[in-house]
Design brief:
- This protein is α/β, with parallel strands linked by helices and 388 residues long.
- 45% of the residues lie in helices and 15% in strands.
- It is built from 13 helices and 12 strands.
- The strands form 3 sheets. Strands 1-2-3-4-7-8-9-12 form an 8-stranded parallel barrel, surrounded by 6 helices.
- The protein starts with 5 loop residues before the first strand and ends in a 36-residue tail after the last helix.
- The relative contact order is 0.16.
Length: 388
């Protein structure tokens, strides 16, 4: 693994207890603007409906706002939910943002969850359980062909021209993958994956292995497979402080309350109860999996994940404190203190041939890293052992 690491911010616009939606959205927008100033590679925007877990109902709309406020940074959706969106409407938005931003927009899509959203927007259970492949393929055709018709189980319409045409290449499309079936679907289409923050390096490595098997079975050539593999994105949490204990305490103080309030607000389509993660235990898990600690530890954990998984792009939740000023400090420290460590490791590895690291901002260097973690990479799980 010798790809340059590209570190981006993941923004959920979470509404913490006692906050208004306006406060959450303002903090989210500021996070993105500061991420550009701090030299991060990208900002990724989440989309949710009817829950304070995230108060952005349209990641594509929010992306348009942020593309207008920034000049360099890539802005992507993580994710736009295809089960509650028409693929053509989403494709039109993606083409528009791609063209107006000079190619800085990335479209991450996924199935979403079995929530009441499906009832409100009319997709129903079928759209969630069986409709994703049809929706994804229609979206891809819209972004790649001059005119499109549909004769599927969910969408049927006569041939119409694609306007505006996104042009050669079009916007980058990624797929959020939480199950072997979705991993295989993404691999068979040659689409990079967005992998969630709730799983560790071993499981992510297994999903990368399964993705490649699916791509090879679909007949994709090696160049296309390798190019797509370089675009996989690993989601996580970043909290930079003077010490590991300080960073962990910041998240312990804020995340459980947000998770408890946000996750409990989800309503299933059939009103059957679904088990909710224990908020404190989930917070502790995130603190151990991801770059949470002093700058050196944060850099080590990014390198470790890159080594173990082969993934070189990161989308890191930066608003874990829930506070405006603290979020800005966190983003600035991530860019100003962690990225230079990655660059220095890269310079050292250029002489020794060891390690991985670089970042997507001004402090970028060549791949590699002298002082990353010394433990060997764990073998990936077999595809059959994957869960999610």
């Amino acid at each position: 693994m010798r790809e340059a690491l590209r570190v981006g911010a993941f923004v959920l616009a979470g509404q913490y207890p006692g906050q208004s939606a306006e406060e959450a959205l303002h903090r989210a927008a500021l996070s993105a603007e500061v991420a550009e100033e701090a030299g991060l590679d990208a900002v990724w925007l989440a989309e949710h409906h009817f829950v304070p877990y995230g108060v952005c109902p349209s990641a594509a709309t929010f992306a348009g706002v942020l593309l207008g406020r920034t000049r360099r940074i890539r802005v992507g959706t993580a994710i736009s939910v295809l089960s509650t969106s028409h693929p053509v409407a989403l494709g039109e938005q993606a083409a528009l943002l791609h063209l107006l931003s000079g190619g800085r927009f990335s479209l991450g899509v996924g199935r979403g969850g079995p929530w009441v959203d499906l009832e409100v927007f009319g997709g129903g259970r079928d759209a969630f359980e069986r409709g994703f492949p049809e929706s994804l393929d229609l979206l891809l055709r819209w972004l790649r062909e001059p005119s499109v018709s549909a004769d599927g189980g969910r969408y049927r319409f006569r041939e119409v021209p694609v306007v505006p045409a996104p042009g050669p290449g079009g916007p980058e499309v990624l797929v959020a993958c939480t199950s072997p079936g979705t991993v295989r679907l993404a691999g068979s289409r040659g689409l990079p994956m967005l992998l969630g923050m709730h799983i560790g390096d071993e499981e992510k490595a297994g999903m990368v292995t399964l993705w490649r098997l699916a791509a090879e079975e679909a007949g994709l050539d090696e160049a296309a497979i390798a190019a797509a593999e370089r675009q996989h994105v690993s989601a996580g949490v970043a909290q930079v402080a003077d010490s590991h204990s300080e960073a962990v305490q910041t998240l312990r103080d804020a995340l459980p309350g947000w998770l408890r309030q946000g996750l409990a607000a989800h309503r299933t389509l059939d009103d059957r109860p679904r088990p909710m993660r224990d908020p404190l235990a989930y917070t502790e898990l995130l603190c151990e999996l991801h770059p949470v600690g002093d700058p050196e530890l944060c850099a080590e954990r990014l390198v470790r994940t890159a080594r173990r998984t082969g993934i070189s792009r990161f989308a890191l939740l930066v608003e874990g404190s829930g506070e405006l000023a603290a979020t800005e400090r966190n983003v600035r420290r991530l860019g100003g203190e962690v990225l230079p460590l990655l660059a220095r490791r890269a310079e050292g590895s250029g002489r020794t041939g060891r390690g991985v690291a670089s970042a997507g901002g001004p402090a970028s260097g060549e791949p590699g890293g002298r002082s990353g973690p010394s433990e060997p990479a764990r073998p990936p799980r077999s595809p059959e052992a994957l869960r999610g």
